[in-house]
Amino acid sequence: MSKLKALTHRKLFLPIVSMILVMLINVIYDTATGSAPFSFFYITVKNGVLYGRLIDVLNRGSEIAILAIGMTIVVSASAGTDISVGSVMALYSAVCCVTLAGFGVTNTSTYARPLIVGILLGILVCVLCGAINGFFVAYLNIQPMVATLILWSAGRAIGLLLCNSQYVYIRVPSFRVIGGYIGFLPTPILVVAICITVMTLFLKFTALGTYVQSVGINKKAARIAGFNSARIIFLAYVICGLCAGLAGMVATSRIYSADTNNIGLNMELDAILSVALGGNSLAGGKFSLAGSLIGAYTIQAITTTMYALGVDPAQAPVFKAVVVLIIVVIQAQPVKDFFAARAARKAVKEAA
Amino acid sequence: MKKLLAIAVIGAAAMGMAMTANAADLIKVGYAQVGHESDWRTANTKNYQDTFTEDNGYSLELVDCDNDHAKQIEAVRNFIQEGLDYIIIAPIQSAGWDTVLQEAQDAGIPVIIADREIDADESLYTAWVGTAPHDEGVTAGKWLGEQLGDKEANILQIEGSVGASAAIGRTEGFQEEADKHDNWKILDSQSGDFTQDGGQQVMESFIKSYEGKFNVVVCQNDNEAYGAMDAMDAAGITYGVDGDVTLISYDATHDGLQYTLDGKFNLDVECNPIQAQTVSDVIQKIQNKEDYEKKTLIKDEAFNAPGIKSEFATEITKDILDKRAY
């Protein structure tokens, strides 16, 4: 009993429960339709690559997961959100593809420049976007949403200008590797794994995590305690820009083209939602990277579930909204308090 | 920014009018274009710019409305204020046009609705010129029926954006034909949002749900079809002329037809962006006070892979592909 209690009081307990709940919908549906109850969880190797719905969740959730890493740091440090990430992803896609194809070319089967130049230039531009956001928020004290609103609208627009408002296709096999497969493993999963490892080590060995949380809890106190608050917030946005670039890299490689109109569209909202679903406060301060990642994969699990259930496209947004609503309500403080109070009453009754 | 742009556009237009004052015999036409979201749209814009030239007796004012309904209404209002001779609208949204159409009518300016459907009383606009997504769906269905004969069809459909008139029309038209065959079954139909990523994701899921149970995939635009191909490649499913799955797409963009020529798509149903000449014909008739059609449908063709004979589609050749305008 006490073990269970300890478990339910873990910070990540509810986010994990939420994710399991979403996956349970599939089990119920499969049982009801007479399919194998746990077919959602089957992982096999097909055509030489990993295959299964769980793999789809991990693979397709990569972009949101990468964005969630950056968003968590930004939310924690500045008690605000970076709403430009989706747009910055599109900008990556435009910069990278136009660099590789050459300006004005819409379809190419040979690189105009080495692949690595395109990727690095794209990432560099995204880091620069992060720096612009960071400068506005940290040094000019502009509210994060307003500051990042600028690139939210400009990022995609600049991308469209670069691409001449056209799709730019890079039909070279090596370009598709990052969004495709390495051996039997979908590469995006590997990219996320690397991002998480690097970020975790970075937070651990540089005390950046402590700095960020201190600044997020109380910016002034942190400054008086000797932290350079502004610089830490600035750095948080730079990291977020870098993450947006990496997410854009995966998304672009998946479709081997710059679809500037659609890449990363509305993805900033998914990223913010992941942070919230992971049990993190959007008011800044303490954060859990693992929570945000669970949140990100929960969102993707909802999407994958909708496809698996064959929800009517017109009703899909409603379905998603209802599931998110339930998850958010489960994690709301008054609801938690209610169940805690009930458990306490029950304990008193049993004791009496 | 947008306001500044608008002011700049109006300013430029005013100057333009002042300069061409002596060329008063030009027919002044305003075109409120949807945006520039796809290759198709770019081809459509270029077609208007090439048709409504001064040599042909027009001065064209083209406003790109960036897929923003409010911006489009504003553009039309500006046209009215400038007192243009004709207004062409490719409605971004089908509803919400009554007021501004009434304003145009009060100002005595004929309005021609182009390309897309509009949700307004017929008396509020002068003429309509466009394609019929419903017919495109029917063509796809008829072609499939002809090719399959008595064989059964287990169909997976990747729809376009929810609510888009092209998606609704293509779904309904295809459904109509599917209903005529007892052994056709649409297993599932999901939205891929007209994007490659959407098509890829939906197809990945379809493969898991209906592995080995489907033999037809219908994608409502070329981009979705590219995504579906990627997903089927990854799962080792063959498609196209030599494959197990018949792949049907709509749009017939250059890349889409290239895939048809390569035998990867079995059929690509066209949605024709070359519409300006037809609009110009209507305007000329109104100008000469001749009778004109209230609604003109632009013919959509369909192209199938080389080696397939059909009465509903043309066999694609390198020659046809090279000669196409987009």
Automatic annotation (TrEMBL), chain A:
> Is the Transmembrane keyword given for this protein?
yes
UniProt-listed Pfam families = BPD_transp_2
Q: How does it sit in the membrane?
A: Multi-pass membrane protein
Q: Which GO terms describe its molecular function?
A: transmembrane transporter activity
Q: Taking the first listed entry, what is the main subcellular location of this protein, grouped into a coarse class?
A: membrane
Q: Which InterPro entries match?
A: ABC_transp_permease
Q: Which GO terms describe its cellular component?
A: plasma membrane
Keyword line: Cell membrane, Membrane, Transmembrane, Transmembrane helix
Location in or out of the cell? Cell membrane
- Judging by the UniProt lineage, the source's domain of life is Bacteria
| Residues that span the membrane, as ranges | 12-29, 64-83, 89-108, 115-140, 146-169, 181-203, 232-251
What is the name attached to this protein's record? Answer: ABC transporter permease
| Organism of derivation | Porcincola intestinalis
